[in-house]
User: Fold these one by one.
Assistant:
Number 1:
Amino acid sequence: MAVTEERAEARYRLPRGAVPTRYDLVLEPDLEAGAFRGSEGIALEIREPLDELVLNAAELEIDGGELVAADGTTVPVIEVRLDAETQRAHLRLGRSLGPGPATLHLDFRGALNDRMRGFYRSRYRDAEGVERIIATTQFEPTDARRAFPCFDEPDLKAAFGVTLVVPEGLLAISNEREVAREPTGDGRVRIRFADTIPMSTYLVAFVVGPLEATEPVDVDGVPLRVVHAPGKGHLTAFALEVGAFALRFFADYYGIPYPGSKLDMVAIPDFAQGAMENLGCITYREVAILVDPGAATQAELQGVADTVTHEIAHMWFGDLVTMRWWNGIWLNEAFATFMELLCVDAFRPEWDRWALHARSRSVAFEFDALATTRPIEYPVRSPEDANGMFDVLTYVKGASVLRMLERYLGPERFREGIRRYLREHAYGNTETSDLWDALEAVSGEPVRTVMDSWVWQGGYPLVSCSARDGEVLLEQRRFRLDGVEDPTRWYVPLLVRHGAASSDPMEPVLVPPEGAGVGHPRGAPVVVNAGGHAFVRVRYDAELRRRLTERLGELAPIERYQLVDDAWAATVAGAENAAAFLGLARAFGDETDLPVWQALLLGLGWCERALQGEARERFRAFVRDLVRPALDRLGWEPGEGEGDVRRALRGALFGALGTLGADPEAIERAREIEAAARAGDGVDAALAAAAVQVLAVHGGPAEWEVFRRAAREARTPQEHLRYLFALPEFREPEAFASALEIALTDEVRPQDLPHYLARGLANRDRGPEAWALVRERWEEIMGRVAPSAAIYLAYGLRGLTDPAVVEDVQAFFAEHDIPQSALQLRQILESQRIHAAFVARAATELGRDLGDAG
Ligand code: BES
Ligand code: ZN
């Protein structure tokens, strides 16, 4: 047993007989030919005499090399064996060497691929319509080995000295600042960059192409730039502002200076993820960094702020201190997401970022209530096992449980623990438990016990709260959408408030598995999850619920949000009648906060999917009666100097009135607004974006063609996506058919294709047609998208709730998988079944209720 374990381990971990300390890397990309050559010198510390070196390489040709010992002894590499399956190169040496320091020299070649991984090509058309090519990298988790032979494991940190040989006139950047440049005499230049700090291979980056850089902004000595395709410099100011803010915020929060000497943020036209935290050279898809604040919605601006702060947070947490192995990827991402929210909250307090976070947290709540959920952390052997960690549970549940801990410990003690952890492990690698130990040391609280219960178990508790004589009783059980009894229990760090208002007294309570009683003034309302930060749902007994509903207006928006969301979850689970949810929505008619409305509209959107014909018409009338007064109160037009969130609320209400309510006046207004926005008349962005949604729902082929052209001629990446992603949201058959026709053409970049198809699948009326396309052209689609991004397509499947289609989808995926995201796919399929059951139930429940009302 132990022996096989060890062998299995050896398949995934390189032997440690020789470990790298630095790489001198020279890369010569030929952009037109789509190829590159390279050479490297890897300084090694050889620990025991060896005659074979093993390192990672994938889809590379190694042309030979030698090993040079410190005393000058040279041993040639006499045989190179590439193992495609393990992605390793075995280098046989002329004779054995070591122990001691030595340098391995290798020459190699490879192709610049078009799959957005490793060293790859991205393209854009310039002002004359000529195609221009960029060579760029994406290495996380294990694709550095596609660009140069290396010890491609996160704990094998080394300094990287990168040199790029590139055609004159192209911009070339890497992790560190440029230190030397000389012509090669053949129209190219050799550009050398300073050594990086010791860091993991997955953080190395280089970008070469016809690109421009902004003037550097000096952020306390760190030059910060945005690098972009020509003609887009006017879209960089916001990212520079938030980037500068984040650099200062994190240097202060972490108590450690920025670990590089410069920071470039690079906008890449083709990019598989949202962004990547390469130290000093963060890469982004364009929509995540280039933005015009005057023309963007709050959500679009927040998207840029989120991404920029998230990646900059990683410069310390992830880059300076790194997980030892891929099981730690969740903490890396969860923590960066937590810091992103903290930083954006400081950057724009008026956004109330944490309240808006509740909306993405609902998605995590939903997936984590499935039978197929997973613990946040699990043992990871092969790097592929860790690919499944890049999901909503890592990012959103992970960040949320960190927030829960931070609120419970208090922000100062929490920050003290983070500082201690980073100081202790700078330039090194860690296990998850190292963080708990640091937090435990500064706080004296049982952090490890608490967090182990959240990290190593899937799911989350429903905390039931009942009034007793002079106390409230808190009990827990697991919340599951399928209603199955489940023995999992947690240590739940809660803040309990004795009173509805935020000024009422609050106390931290750690609820153990068996539950707890808390002293409480008789007759007063109690808020069990005060501040709404714990990753729990709450059920109040009838008496406590009554006390709270009387004082709804005194609760914080995030607390009201959670009341609605908990009610909605009970509805999806079948524990509550869908008609009761409409009743709850009525009770919230006076609501003025964006997140709360978002929770209501999410539920109403699902309800609408259950209804056809007459019942649907009555539902539309219900929505109009609910939403119109709220919109009238707010005003259909923005007032002078109005804040972003109020505008966003108007957009949400206006959009709902036009889509769910099919309100003729809203549809008419949408036509005017959209046309004016397209003409560049400075229309409020929230209204403009909502108008596009409304017209997709009600428009036909003529509007579709207009939108298609608008996507092509868009002035910003956000406007492009607003129109592009509206194309598969048309309900009119001919327009929708056109949307499917262009899906697999150049009109939809592969980076956008999964999201585009997801929207088609989720189309209320035409989803099955999108499914027919996906099904038929599955292989082709999988061949176009980045493997790690394929799963985004599947999220649209949850909208397919017709029983015959559900069965077809489930049968199809019994035979086809999405290799990097197998578990996520199973969760989506379970979610599809649950929503199909909800839609079936709601059709009757709502049909009856709305019938009575009408
Ligand atoms: N490290 C990730 C990028 C990544 C994700 C690389 C998956 C390889 C596989 C990066 O820090 C990240 O989390 N990016 C997010 C955006 C962020 C704002 C949440 C992304 O790409 O979606
Ligand atoms: Zn990240």
Note: The chain has a mean pLDDT of 96.
Number 2:
Amino acid sequence: MYNAKAYATLTPASRLAPFDLQRRDPGAHDVQIQILYCGICHTDVHIARNEWQGTTYPCVPGHEIVGRVVKAGVHVTKFQEGDLVGVGCMVDSCRACENCREDLEQFCVNGPTFTYNSSDKHNGGITYGGYSDSVVVDEAFVLRVPKHLNLSASAPLLCAGITTYSPLRHYRVGPGQKVGVVGLGGLGHMGVKIAKALGARVVVFTTSANKVEDALRLGADEVVISRNEAEMKQHLNSFHFILDTVAARHDINAYLVLLKRDGTLTQVGLPAEPLAVQVGSLIFGRRNFSGSLIGGIKETQEMLDFCGEHNLTSDVELIPIQQINEAYERLLKSDVKYRFVIDIASLGTPAAVRA
Ligand code: NAP
Ligand code: ZN
Ligand code: ZN
């Protein structure tokens, strides 16, 4: 075991604060990663504040991790010291169930081991995430980050990127289709970039009038202020696919009726409260309402390679970790352009170790 620095919260209502933890020494199949950047996902806020229930404290969030391999176990084949790598929402799974064998570890029937707030089979207790200067992960759950991409702007691909890429691919979004993205936050802005790169016509739905110009710059063909009913009505029965990234309670029926016959609305935003569905909106038009959870490891690598080819990264606000509590408050006000990323050097790791 060795010591690592981190930021943790100790109760649902506390501020995140410095916290020391112990990581395992890398085993034969593990890599030890010096974390350089970690994105702040809205899920971090939900879990740090126990909004979905089931949070164990102390809680060290963070699942958009990029960094450098500093040690590789003797049986590690994919990585070597010095490689730039990423870790997303999962660090392990049973690898034997039907879903794991189909490269869908996120749906592991025995429960994937999430990067934080999951049982830690190595150390006991729970897993601790990327608001930390170091992590040890089995190489099977470590990703290659394209070298030419800006590293801090690549961190959000590990969750926001794969969470939007996976449903867009699953529902075969492409040229000739009209695709909606609801909510222009961390997930939403990656959804716009990826749907556009896949060749779709993209319409952004936002509650924030001040994001219209940005949405167009990010690649949207059109922007709708979702609180404006008349604007919404112009799009009735016209979408092949809509991706909903909203983290709070909202009227889902206003979007279901915008789908064409047989169209699909996929929910990736996960509000703490239930959403009320007007079943009629589904029946008339044989429309589909579905959900999607991140993506498997194989698909996450495919997404990173796709982003490498298309030069896609996140628009980020880089912050020192000392500003994390203010960043959470701004996230709750939809005030981020468009993903906060923590510069882990601010944790104060000695420069000699960082080099
Ligand atoms: P975010 O950056 O806060 O973005 C959410 C966006 O939703 C906001 O920017 C805002 O966009 C819109 N919004 C917020 N409150 C709203 C309200 N009351 N009514 C309508 N729109 C509202 O969050 P994120 O990191 O993208 O995460 C979004 C959600 O996805 C969270 O619930 C998170 O837990 C979940 N998530 C799910 C998965 C998965 O695998 N399914 C993975 C990661 C995250 P506008 O200002 O444009 O309206
Ligand atoms: Zn996330
Ligand atoms: Zn499994």
Note: The longest strand covers residues 30-39.
